[in-house]
């Protein structure tokens, strides 16, 4: 058994058995920057793109994707709407950082993509070749400035193509996603790897939604020669990792890549670390090394789908109630979103204690957010994702939804059906098994649990499958976060809950179907104390 299964079990049990180091306390005064900083690197500002096309969010969430190519304004717009700073958060809410938000050193800025703990540790590198608008090279996206910083000059796209092992042979523009572990581990220590792998999925889902809404097609690779790409970007293997590569089809780009010989070049620029003390965690090191095994050996076609087919059949049978507890409820057709993709991403925020059960949300609104989250669980566009089956399953705790009785349900997306698991209100259960004080879960219209057959995926594709599963969970959360404001709903997502209690309460197969995330949706208090401080 690989280490990834041991790590997944530790995450499952962390509500009862703390992950080591159990006595760790974050030093907030010495926290790292949210973005890597290259003070000597030249930079240029990115342009923005035109407004949303008509009906963009519906097409973005559910397809179909288009075939158009990227331009510099489109790339700038996608980066701005996903990871760029779009506004400052100053609303009164129940999170613990409320008292510091008015102080600029502790300011909290909004972005289109969600991130565990609001830390945003993903580094975005643009590796550009001859078909692009700039001199070929490696650039780092500076999120505070919405600008590109040049780290290397010269065409190194042959090195990226070599790392991809034959994928994107006709492409010479790539986005490469990296994570510097300390940017998250300073707060979450050993739990950090679990969080950042979900963050990768959330960002990829944002890009998928945004690109499809603009008539573009975007895919991603999670299996590649990570050591080669790490050397190219000048990363320390135990401190940073490369988690995804996204080929960009450029408008007017070449039909075939011009250069085929890898250069062996390496970025020499070094980012300036803010923290005086940088710690490493053995658990993070071990799980990262485990996911590097077989990184360049992409799973054979059909292997993952076969494993998911078998696993979901077994897990659904295992969680079926011994006796029927009520009639299935067919949800109405999903409500049509009122916002485009850009508007929805800029309206995205976490509710943090502002939920209100009155008035209840509608069943059509619930159908809309469930459809979005379920679709994202398939990791559409990911080269290594499944073709037929989802990597995730959703359970719904209904609190305040019009025409849907309170209870716990299993969601069947193909039939748009809620199958009863346990009847009656569950507010007491939800709040008792939530670790923090920033949400009143009983006041949310519904609480959605995302679970996954992590062990079955690891058995099928190896330890790197942990990244795949967590990316699917992160994608589900981002799809829900994007759909919710478009449907007039508030939203929130949390990792701090007792997963074992949810396993027992819903009758999930112990240790085989892992509860990984809870997502809250519903109405908010009318006219909450807020301040709109948009910066774009």
Describe the structure concisely for a colleague:
With 536 residues, this protein is of the alpha+beta class. The protein has 15 helices and 17 strands. The strands form three sheets. Strands 9, 10, 11, 12, 13, 14, 15 and 16 form an eight-stranded antiparallel β-sheet that branches.
SSE topology sketch:
Layout: H1 3-13, E1 43-45, H2 56-62, H3 72-82, E2 87-88, E3 109-110, E4 122-128, E5 137-142, E6 147-153, H4 157-164, E7 173-180, H5 182-188, H6 192-213, H7 226-233, E8 240-247, H8 282-292, H9 303-319, E9 329-330, H10 341-347, E10 355-356, H11 363-376, E11 393-398, E12 407-412, E13 417-423, H12 427-432, E14 446-452, H13 454-461, H14 465-486, E15 490-494, H15 499-506, E16 514-524, E17 533-534
Antiparallel strand pairs: 1-6, 2-3, 2-17, 4-5, 4-7, 5-6, 7-8, 9-13, 10-16, 11-12, 11-14, 12-13, 14-16, 15-16
Provide an overview of this structure.
This protein is an alpha+beta fold. It is 31% helix and 17% strand. A hairpin with an 8-residue loop joins strand 11 and strand 12 (407-412). Helix 2 packs across helix 6 and helix 6 (192-213) packs across helix 14. The longest helix is centred in the middle third of the chain and has 22 residues, at 192-213.
SS-based class: alpha+beta
Number of helices: 15
The number of E-state strands comes to 17
Strand content: 15-25%
Note the main sheet: 8 strands, antiparallel
Report Rg: 22 Å
What's the shape? globular
